[in-house]
């Protein structure tokens, strides 16, 4: 599966949702997640994210993010249509430790 990671938080560009062939993105207030059981590993979304927040879970060190994606994909509503990024997305793009600071 692919997973959404830290830099999506408070950016939420949502370009990713438009290209996913199986519509497996789920939306929280300031973050999106991928449902690991629905993702078919096509990789199409990865280059579409302007924040480079989407990664294959074969990359090392993503266990925490895989857990977060799996947990919230079962709670949050599905999102399939692109919308405006969050206010201040550009300024926050690249900030470190977004999870600790902003995740909700
Ligand atoms: Fe959707 Fe493919 Fe991205 Fe998985 S890798 S979330 S199936 S676009
Ligand atoms: Fe987030 Fe990137 Fe999608 S910022 S909403 S994973 S395009």
Mean pLDDT over the full residue set: 97
Return residue spans where pLDDT drops below 50 for at least 5 consecutive residues.
none
Distance between the termini: 23 Å
Q: How many helix segments?
A: 4
Form type: globular
Summed up, the domain count is 1
Give the beta-strand count: 4
Structural class, judged by helices and strands? alpha+beta
What compounds are bound to the protein?
iron/sulfur cluster, FE3-S4 cluster
Strand content: 5-15%
Please give the oligomerization state of what you see.
single chain
The whole-angstrom Rg is 12 Å
- Give the CATH level 1 class: Alpha Beta
Report the major sheet.
Answer: 2 strands, antiparallel
Report the CATH topology name. Answer: Alpha-Beta Plaits
Explain this structure.
By secondary structure, the chain is an alpha+beta fold. The strands form two sheets. A two-stranded antiparallel sheet has the order 1-4. The protein has a two-stranded antiparallel sheet with strand order 2-3. It starts with a strand and ends with a helix. The protein is 24% helix and 12% strand. Strand 2 and strand 3 form a beta hairpin. Residues 4, 8, 11-16, 32, 49, 51, 53-54 line the site of FE3-S4 cluster. Its cofactor is [4Fe-4S] cluster; [3Fe-4S] cluster. This is Ferredoxin. Ferredoxins are iron-sulfur proteins that transfer electrons in a wide variety of metabolic reactions. It comes from Rhizobium mesosinicum.
Q: What does this entry show, briefly?
A:
This protein has helices at 15-19, 63-73, 89-92, 98-102; strands at 2-4, 25-27, 32-34, 54-56. By secondary structure, it is an alpha+beta fold.
């Amino acid at each position: 599966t692919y997973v959404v990671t830290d830099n999506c938080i408070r950016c939420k560009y949502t370009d990713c949702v438009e290209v996913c062939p199986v519509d497996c993105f789920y939306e929280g207030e300031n973050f999106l997640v991928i449902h690991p059981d629905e993702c078919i590993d096509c990789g199409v979304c990865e280059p579409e994210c302007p924040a480079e927040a989407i990664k294959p879970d074969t990359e090392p060190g993503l266990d925490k993010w895989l857990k977060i994606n799996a947990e919230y994909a079962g709670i949050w509503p599905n999102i399939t249509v692109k919308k405006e990024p969050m206010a201040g997305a550009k300024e926050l793009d690249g900030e470190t430790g977004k999870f600790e600071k902003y995740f909700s």
